[in-house]
Amino acid sequence: MGPHDGIERFTSPGKGRGMRALRDFRLGELLFTCPAYTCVLTVNERSNQCDHCFARKEGLSKCGKCKQAFYCNVDCQKGDWPMHKLECSSMCTYGQNWNPSETVRLTARILAKQKLHPERTSSERFLTVKEFESHLDKLDNEKKELIQTDIAALHHFYSKNLHYADNAALEVLFAQVNCNGFTIEDEELSHLGSAIFPDVALMNHSCCPNVIVTYKGTVAEIRAVQEITAGDEIFTSYIDLLYPTEDRNDRLKDSYFFTCDCKECTTKQKDPAKLEIRKLSEPPSPKTIRDMVKYARNVVEEFRRAKHYKTPSELLEMCELSIEKMGAVFEESNVYMLHMMYQSMGVCLYQQDWDGALKYGQKIIKPYSKHYPPYSLNVASMWLKLGRLYMGLEKKSAGIKALKKAIAIMEIAHGADHHYIAEVKKELEQ
């Protein structure tokens, strides 16, 4: 059986095209794999991972010209050259001022790939890049301006080595990338890069997904996180599933221009627990609760912006103040409290305050396990972070317990033979 025998493209009622199962798949079973059509390693991971295959190892060798791209060996360097050459001389020319966004870098590579390989690729068994939905007609002025900024940067940094389409075609392409691009993350959900996986983009969204997408280098792997029966539509999740129904749908409308009608969005079954209110002798009024939710949603957005210009200690203070304020009305298991605790944990990790990070992680893990679906990468990565913190702080038995919890989820989501799992097992043995 080939790698794509169990699935087909079909027209999903009310959802347009989608993917469905032609046979049963059991929990943890691989449905299909998709190599990246093209991808780009994020700037922050340079020298940690190979620019071509995304392997994580010590002692990578760097490109002799720009000294900014790193490779496993000569094969990886040669393999990457058709893409790296778009940037190499430009990086040398601009030096410190070379700063196109990751979206621009990825889009430049799509243009180069289309020129190099106009025929269908092995990443496009079911859906081609050309068929991507752009939703250009639905973009507001702010989004259109962002695209124009990206187009200007593309011309600025890539004028030497790219033959572009006209402005209108570039608008479509950037809009397509915004809706159909993927971010590749590691086992702790740290951002590694961006990629185009056409066949993966064929799947529709559900907030109770039956598959999960993980990465092995630059290949996407899709596994069942529920039992799937022949004839079932295959659903992945496009967004973080922590948040209540209204927030999820705001995010889906804003980024993907649809509203979800899955079981969770119709029943809103998890919303009361996600918006848990403190049991006080004088219960807060509906208005107080509404105001606090509004405040919480604003803080989440404000923090996202603040990350770019505030110092770590300012960010931590911002988190702690918002946690204190929300804590007057919300339980600690409330997702807005968890969001700010997660951000605080991230700042602590960045500052190498391991005890502080652990304190937040311990509060987060149980509610995470309740709010997320059973085999969630968010839960696995939290167990992993906790396990590694415990081990580093010489709390061995707690560390072993946490790492084993992570492995149990990863064996389903990543497959038992994934190198991430082998690495975690090594940590258990030490």
TrEMBL record:
Enzyme Commission number(s) from the entry: 2.1.1.354
Q: Which GO terms describe its cellular component?
A: cytosol; nucleus
Main location group = cytoplasm
Please give the Pfam families that the UniProt record associates with this protein: SET, zf-MYND
The cross-references to PANTHER family, in alphabetical order and at most eight, read: HISTONE-LYSINE N-METHYLTRANSFERASE SMYD, N-LYSINE METHYLTRANSFERASE SMYD2
What's the name of the protein?
N-lysine methyltransferase SMYD2
Q: Which CDD domains match?
A: SET_SMYD2 (cd19202)
Show the SUPFAM superfamilies listed in the entry. SET domain, TPR-like
The job of this chain, per UniProt, is described as: Protein-lysine N-methyltransferase that methylates both histones and non-histone proteins, including p53/TP53 and RB1. Specifically trimethylates histone H3 'Lys-4' (H3K4me3) in vivo. The activity requires interaction with HSP90alpha. Shows even higher methyltransferase activity on p53/TP53. Monomethylates 'Lys-370' of p53/TP53, leading to decreased DNA-binding activity and subsequent transcriptional regulation activity of p53/TP53. Monomethylates RB1 at 'Lys-860'.
The record's PROSITE patterns line, in alphabetical order, gives: SET, ZF_MYND_1, ZF_MYND_2
Reaction(s) catalysed (UniProt annotation): L-lysyl(4)-[histone H3] + 3 S-adenosyl-L-methionine = N(6),N(6),N(6)-trimethyl-L-lysyl(4)-[histone H3] + 3 S-adenosyl-L-homocysteine + 3 H(+); L-lysyl-[protein] + S-adenosyl-L-methionine = N(6)-methyl-L-lysyl-[protein] + S-adenosyl-L-homocysteine + H(+)
Q: List, for all copies, the residue spans of the domain called SET.
A: 5-239
User: What GO biological process terms does the UniProt entry carry, in alphabetical order?
Assistant: methylation
Q: Which residues cross the membrane?
A: none
Subcellular location per UniProt equals: Cytoplasm, Cytosol; Nucleus
Question: Which species expresses this protein natively?
Answer: Engystomops pustulosus
The reply to whether Transport figures as a keyword in the UniProt entry is: no
Q: Which InterPro entries match?
A: H3K4_H4K5_MeTrfase, SET_dom, SET_dom_sf, SMYD2_SET, TPR-like_helical_dom_sf, Znf_MYND
Keywords annotated in UniProt: Chromatin regulator, Cytoplasm, Metal-binding, Methyltransferase, Nucleus, S-adenosyl-L-methionine, Transcription, Transcription regulation, Transferase, Zinc, Zinc-finger
Domain MYND-type residue range list: 50-88
An annotated Gene Ontology molecular function: zinc ion binding
Gene3D superfamilies, alphabetized: 1.10.220.160, 1.25.40.970, 6.10.140.2220, SET domain (2.170.270.10), Tetratricopeptide repeat domain (1.25.40.10)
